[in-house]
UniProtKB/TrEMBL annotation:
This protein's record includes keyword Membrane: no
Cofactor: FAD
Classification via InterPro entries: FAD-bd_oxidored_4_C (IPR004113), FAD-bd_PCMH (IPR016166), FAD-bd_PCMH-like_sf (IPR036318), FAD-bd_PCMH_sub1 (IPR016167), FAD-bd_PCMH_sub2 (IPR016169), FAD-linked_Oxase-like_C (IPR016164), FAD-oxidored/transferase_4 (IPR051264), Oxid_FAD_bind_N (IPR006094)
Lineage: Bacteria, Pseudomonadati, Pseudomonadota, Gammaproteobacteria, Kangiellales
Assigned protein family: Belongs to the FAD-binding oxidoreductase/transferase type 4 family.
A GO term, aspect molecular function: oxidoreductase activity
Signal peptide (residue range): none
Organism, scientific name: Kangiella profundi
The protein's name in its UniProt record: FAD-binding oxidoreductase
Keyword Flavoprotein: yes
Length: 463
């Protein structure tokens, strides 16, 4: 059947102006932040509700047309790429908050709702949605759930998975499932909700979600610490965790700090530059907690775990100090970094960082290396910057040749090749470094059960 015939049929399933075929839209919706492939989708469908999504998926099964679900397209693993004539189902028009229950502290929304929209709505009701990251202004809740997004506050609040109390999904077969229905307790067998969380659109499309909210933190305070070496990271974390309830514990290298300061014309936040820095955020709701934080800071200085530091004195200063960490990705994006989003258990962080630094020094001697990450939950971001005079394809190939060494070390330490960016296209060749052969067989069986015709986001995560 011709593309024109497909387009004509799809138009009958959607409202007017909800099917896009112009080249600008195909390019926009056919890729994510990776830009790793030239977009080439069939068309862009913009449904307004679950029923329209179901109609499209049933049609796709009948016509054997592959489907790529699309949220905010802020992913970094190629999970939302449509480069082979797929139909993109974008949820931009499914962006409403449709329910709120103050008693149970739950919000119900369509999957296209923007993360920041949920955060602001919660704040207006004196509540808090804590899943937060640099792309919160453009990422969509459905995409967050499909990738089990993490971010900067995982050490205190956990991953997206921990805040999802119900889902409406359209499976790859075209069935509509209401999963868990917002229940806090539900001991009735397999919880299919958790299969869809982190599934990257390979089992079906998340169309609605019930999310848990919590109380707002009081007087968030930030400490930015300059430290002499990697060995100081875990002792600092352990000391502050004994005294404080940390909401974040972040890490970045001096090379990352230098890039941010130069790009954004920011002054150095500390008097003494050091090889590494860590940023702590905590809920300072009492004078006693603030005193505990200052005492641990002084102890760290005396023991030479900390060489310098600064503490926020206002909400504005909290935001200013966070810029040095949160602006890193944006700052280096123009250099087309080769990214590795990896994790080990926190107690192995220092050994892993040291091991990877040795590999990087040996294999990338002429490349700039930018480290940062959510050190409190074991998540590290290794960014290799493309030299300005090297063709990008050659640079990528050089990085890929070193991946087996890095992932081999991860495998030895029981780590993950993808902590929060997902598998998508980029990490699929390396899945066996984290998942056993038996696990992959089960994953394929689950995929087959929900998507027997293989139309849902083909080529992503598993074959």
């Amino acid at each position: 059947m011709s593309s024109d015939t497909y387009i004509s049929q799809l138009k009958t399933l959607l409202d007017d102006d909800s099917l896009l075929t112009d080249q600008e839209s195909l390019n926009h919706y056919g890729k994510d932040w990776t830009n790793i492939k030239q977009p080439a989708p069939l068309a862009i469908a913009l449904p307004k509700n679950t029923e329209q999504v179901q109609k499209i998926v049933l049609w796709a099964n009948e016509n054997q047309v592959a489907v790529v679900p699309s949220g905010g397209r802020t992913g970094l693993s190629g999970g939302a790429v449509a480069a082979n004539g797929e139909l993109v189902i974008a949820l931009d028009k499914m962006n409403k908050i449709t329910g709120f229950n103050a008693g149970s502290q739950q919000i119900h929304c369509q999957a296209g709702a923007i993360t920041q929209q949920i955060q602001q709505y919660a704040n207006e009701h004196e509540l808090y949605y804590p899943v937060d990251f640099a792309s919160s202004g453009s990422s969509q809740i459905g995409g967050n759930i499909a990738t089990n997004a993490g971010g900067i506050k995982v050490i205190r609040y956990g991953l997206t998975r921990d805040w999802v109390q119900g889902l409406t999904v359209v499976t790859g077969k075209g069935d509509v499932l209401e999963l868990n229905k917002g229940l806090i307790k539900n001991a009735t067998g397999y919880d299919l909700r958790h299969l869809f969380i982190g599934s990257e659109g390979t089992l079906g499309i998340i169309t609605e979600a019930t999310l848990k909210l919590t109380r707002k933190p009081a007087n968030l305070t930030v400490l930015l610490l300059a430290i002499p070496n990697l060995d100081c990271l875990m002792p600092i974390l352990q000391r502050f965790q004994k005294s404080l309830s940390l909401t974040a514990f972040e890490f970045f290298s001096d090379e990352a700090l230098e890039k941010v300061m130069a790009h954004h014309n920011l002054a150095c936040p500390v008097e003494q530059r050091t090889p590494y820095y860590c940023l702590l955020e905590f809920d300072a709701h009492s004078e006693e907690i603030m005193n505990d934080a200052l005492a641990e800071f002084e102890n760290g200085l005396n023991d030479e775990l900390i060489l310098d530091g600064v503490m926020s004195q206002s909400q504005q200063q909290v935001e200013e100090l966070w810029k040095y960490r949160e602006f890193i990705s944006e700052t280096i994006s123009g250099r087309k970094p080769y990214k590795n989003d990896i994790s080990v258990t926190p107690e192995k962080i220092t050994d892993f960082l040291t091991g990877v630094n040795n590999i990087v020094a040996q294999d990338y001697p002429d490349f700039e290396v930018i480290w940062f990450g959510h050190i409190g939950d074991g998540n590290l971001h290794l960014n290799i910057l493309a030299p300005k005079n090297m063709p990008y394809e050659e640079f990528t190939q050089a990085c890929e040749q070193v991946n087996p060494k890095i992932f081999g070390l991860l495998q030895e330490m029981g780590g993950s090749i993808s902590a929060e960016h997902g598998v998508g296209i980029l990490k699929k060749p390396y899945l066996s470094y984290t998942r056993s052969e038996q696990e992959i067989v089960y994953l394929k069986s689950i995929k087959q059960a929900f998507d027997p015709n293989g139309i849902m986001n083909p080529g992503k995560v598993i074959d």
